[in-house]
Amino acid sequence: TSASGPDNNGEPITVFHDKDNFNVKHPLANKWTLWFTKPPSGKGDNWADLLKEVITFETVEEFWGIYNNITNTGELPVKADYHLFKSGVRPEWEDSQNKHGGKWAYTTKDRKGVPIDNLWLHVMLAAIGETLEEENDGEIMGVVVNVRKAFYRIGVWTRTIGKAVPAGDANLAGGQGRTAEQGKEVIQSIGRKFKLALALPDTEMVEFTGHTDSAHSGSTRARAKMTA
Amino acid sequence: ETAKSVEPAQPTPGMRSLRSARLLQLQSETVKYPEGIQSPNPALNQGTRRSGKVYDTDFLLQFKDAFKEKPSLEWDDKLKAIVGDQDGNKSAR
Q: Do the Cβ atoms of B26 and A36 come within 8 Å?
């Protein structure tokens, strides 16, 4: 649309052809918003004020422009988080689209020697590239990385906790409905894909918990419902 | 010098291209990627609704060195306000 810009109608020119004069960009299946949790200052600030929207994007090129110009996870202070969620979903379990859901989580045993930047990058790429779930699953809400004193945790948030879904719910199962067994298998399959994205050895586990369970028990690790 | 400093900063050619580029239709368009660049996995991009928008990690990783433009001219200030200046903290010590 820009008069001085590159030819928008001709042969597709990608960033690989000319990074300064390209005329096409690669669309993502979803629009995504990156959020950041600032560590509390210790002066009684509430969590909602610490959670900030950074930017929303919908192309592969935009993602890399952001990734290449933002602080690496490994350089963040303790108690910081990045959240990458589908646009319109707040990265909180109270959000109407999250409140019946849960998350797969991988918690590292230490922080030293953990290639956290690479792990987080691969999980983000699996999310935006749509390889964490099958077409029409409708489960993935977002991914998150937590920086804590003694560990890192990476999570994948899902819309459900693997239950039966009635037909006609357009968000899930392509509106076709699911049995309880199918629901459970969808969540298990996401756990396996998450593990694959992290390239974890068989000896390492990822754990699934429902948000309501972890909110009530006060600990994410207290009530693991599934493992992969 | 003085005149230069009052001129507003201009977006880079890469920023301008990002803004004006159209969305590729991978389902119906064939892109001839330069030699050495692997196309999106065709198996992931056949079929239905999200077709043409599913990308395997190897395809996506190729962009890492290919596109490094900041999202906007105001990006550094925005980032400093939201995320904080981690590098600045370090060098100040």
A: no
Q: Which residues of chain A have pLDDT under 50?
A: 1-6, 221
How far apart, in whole angstroms, are the C-alpha atoms of residue A61 and residue A28?
Answer: 10
Q: Do the Cβ atoms of A106 and A154 come closer than 8 Å? A: yes
- SS3 of residue A34 by DSSP: strand
Give domain limits for chain A: 27-227
Q: For chain B, how far is it from start to end, CA to CA, in angstroms?
A: 33
Shortest CB distance from B34 goes to which of A17, A57, A77? A17
ipTM value for the complex: 0.89
Report the residue of chain B nearest A12, measured CA to CA: B31
Report d(CA A72, CA B86) in Å as an integer: 10
Query: What are the boundaries of each domain within chain B?
Result: 2-68
Backbone angles phi, psi at A70, to 5 degrees: -130, 155
Smallest Cβ distance to B17: which of A6, A57, A71? A6
List, for residues B6-36, the tens digit of each pLDDT value: 677 899 999 999 999 999 987 778 889 999 9
Q: Does B53 contact A28 at a Cβ distance shorter than 8 Å?
A: yes
For domain A27-227, the question of CATH label 3.30.760.10 is answered with yes
The structure's pTM equals 0.89
Number of residue pairs across A and B with CB atoms under 8 Å? 159
